[in-house]
Amino acid sequence: MANQGYQHVICDPAKCIGCRICEYVCSATKTGNFDPNLSRIRVVRIEPVAMTAITCRLCADAPCITACPRDALSRSEKNGIILVDTDKCDGCGWCVEACDFGAIVLNPVTRNAEICNLCEEQADGPQCVKFCPKDALTLATPEVLRQQARREVVASLFEELLAED
Amino acid sequence: MYSYSGRILHVDLTTQRTRVQQVSAEFLKTYLGGVGLATRLVYDNVPKGCDPLGPDNALCFACSAFAGTTMPVGTKHGVASKSPLTGFIGDSLSGSHFSEMIRRAGWDGLVIKGAAPEWSVLFIDDDDVHFLDASPFMGMETIKAQQAIRRKLGDENVRVSAIGPAGENLVRYATIDNDGRQVGRTGNGTVMGSKKLKAIAIRGTKPITVADMDGLLKESLKLIKITQGPGTQKYRILGTAENVLTMNAMGTLPTRNARETTFEFAEKVSGEYLHEHFTIKAVGCAGCSIACEQWATVKEGKYKGAIAGLDYESLYALGPNCGMSELPPVIRLSQRCDELGIDTISTGVVVSWAMECYEQGILSQEDCDGLDLRFGNDEAAIALVEKIAKREGIGDLLAEGSKRASEKVGKGSEHFAMQIKGLEMPGYDVRGLKTFAMGLAVGTRGACHNRSLAYEVDVKGVVDRLTVGPGRGKLARDKEDFAAVLDSLVLCKFLRRCFDDFFPDVARIYTMVTGIPMTAEELQAVGERVWNLKKAFNIREGWTKADDWLPGRALHDPQPSGPGKGVYVTEDELRMMIDDYYQARGWTPEGLIPKCKLIELGLDDIAEDVGVDDGMMAIPTGVEVPASEEAR
Question: Which residue does chain B place closest to A130, by CA atoms?
Answer without folding.
Answer: B221
